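We were asked to recover a plausible sequence for a given structure. The inputs and outputs are reproduced exactly as logged, with field labels preserved.

PROBLEM: sequence recovery
POSITIONS: 299
GIVEN STRUCTURE:
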């Protein structure tokens, strides 16, 4: 249902924003999350990015649809819809040295996974897509950079006794209880910054692009981890009698650690989460209103 809503929104935006020189595109690639559940040490993976170790199993699938209007010079504006998955697992830290941060994450034993649906508008700049190079009708390699703004929807889950459990309704850090913060939103603002290399074929009707997005968010809860462990007595008071099923879940998933953690002990770090995407995109420039499709500079 959520995917259908995104597709309808995408088509509505396209029909209202773009009237000529419109390129439609589709992309496929990976997504990777950065937050409190990134690994800090992997025995078989020395690769690092942003100071964290990369875990190949957490490179997840991503898809995109887009439409882009070319202005007469080097600028274009696009509407983009992404569907992707993100995940992180403390169990990926296999270090046994108690002085290591990786060991602390290992015994914390938290995990999450989530689907993400995102939509945003962006402005791109292609300095080599000028009139002279465009009208040569030769293969054109065009690097680009851009930025935008939009929204994304997520819903962190984990596995418990073989079943998927949604984490936000539980309030694993006490959210929603008296004296604690409200539950975090599952829809938030997204600021994408993108860069890539686009290859226009001689007809200018078809293109391929290698596209990378850094997606800045304003939430620290993509992974359901941010602050400290709640007081166990507060959980008992709030749920043990009134909602014993919820009490069992929130007690188990708030602190599933290999060793128990004290009330108020640090559970996560209060920094915004973000995620990366990398895709190969196929583009097709539509001939609208009888325009010559290879001449985006026609008036």
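RECOVERED SEQUENCE:
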């Amino acid at each position: 249902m959520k995917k259908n809503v995104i597709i309808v929104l995408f088509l509505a935006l396209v029909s209202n924003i773009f009237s000529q020189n419109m390129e439609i595109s589709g992309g496929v690639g990976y997504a990777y999350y950065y937050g409190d559940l990134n690994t800090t040490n992997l025995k078989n993976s020395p690769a690092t990015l942003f100071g964290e170790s990369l875990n190949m199993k957490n490179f997840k699938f991503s898809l995109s649809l887009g439409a882009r209007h070319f202005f007469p010079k080097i600028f274009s504006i696009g509407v983009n819809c992404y569907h992707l998955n993100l995940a992180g697992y403390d169990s990926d830290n296999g270090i046994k040295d108690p002085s290591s941060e990786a060991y602390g994450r290992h015994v914390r034993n938290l995990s999450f996974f989530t689907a993400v649906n995102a939509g945003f508008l962006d402005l791109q700049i292609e300095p080599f897509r000028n009139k002279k190079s465009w009208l040569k009708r030769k293969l054109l390699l065009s690097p680009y950079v851009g930025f935008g703004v939009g929204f994304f929807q997520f819903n962190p889950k984990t596995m418990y006794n073989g079943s998927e459990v949604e984490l936000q309704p539980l309030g694993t850090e006490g959210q929603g209880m008296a004296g604690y913060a409200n539950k975090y939103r599952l829809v938030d603002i997204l600021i994408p910054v993108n860069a890539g290399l686009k290859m226009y074929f001689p007809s200018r009707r078809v293109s391929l692009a290698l596209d990378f997005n850094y997606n800045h968010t304003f939430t620290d809860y993509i992974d359901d981890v941010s602050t400290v462990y709640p007081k166990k007595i507060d959980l008992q008071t709030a749920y043990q009698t009134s909602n014993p099923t919820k009490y069992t879940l929130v007690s188990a998933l708030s602190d599933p650690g290999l060793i128990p953690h004290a009330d108020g002990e640090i559970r996560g770090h209060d920094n915004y989460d973000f995620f990366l995407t990398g895709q190969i995109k196929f583009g097709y420039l539509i001939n609208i209103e009888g325009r010559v499709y290879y001449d985006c500079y026609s008036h």
